[in-house]
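Input.
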Amino acid sequence: MPKSKMTDAMSKDGRFKDNYDPACRLVSLFTASGESDIASAMAVKLGRRAASFGETVLILDAVDGALMEQAGIIYARTLDDVARGTAEPQDALYVTSNEHFTAGAVGEGGLENALGVLAALSLSYDWVFVVPKAGCEIAHVRLGQASDVSVMTYDTQGDQFMRAYWMVEALRRRAPNFDPLILSTGAKGDAVETAFMLSETVREHLGAPPPYAGHAEDLHLESRLLDQMRAQADRRAVA
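Output.
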């Protein structure tokens, strides 16, 4: 179980008080092929699991509100409003039934316009999970560059795994050390074969392949993923 980091700070009356020192891990959950609702569902599971440990979590919906709807959160303000100066950050963030678990939506301006606000928000939480739309655009590349950890899902159907290859290639052009945790979705019976083909294709053309983290339907996947993410973020912090 992760431990909360606390630091001592002196209050105005001269007494010391405990302040929470967040881990500030920014995590992107990309969808190379298939539907982004799988990444959205995974983000919610990861967030709830981390919050159950007492870690602070912020999930950001960059999929036109689909994640917020999936999580059962009704919202009126978005980060778009914050970027325009018509709302304060706290007005666009919605606390769920768990006080450690907060969610918000990027809004109509899209991920590109929200990256600055997102970077600032990531300094106040242990985990910030961002779910962008499926595919790979310049905003995805910039998000991948800024992230401490990335997860990338692909569909096992046919040659859909090649979309994960192209996305890894696009991101490594800007960020040579981009090394996402790979998750397969779709038919589980094809997961091992397609993961192997993806790994070998990356190895042949791009160098070291990203680690395969399993299939989206694996039992207790969110617990294992969180452990892998902590380890990867810690390695990046000392690199």
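Residues 221-238 form the longest helix (18 residues).
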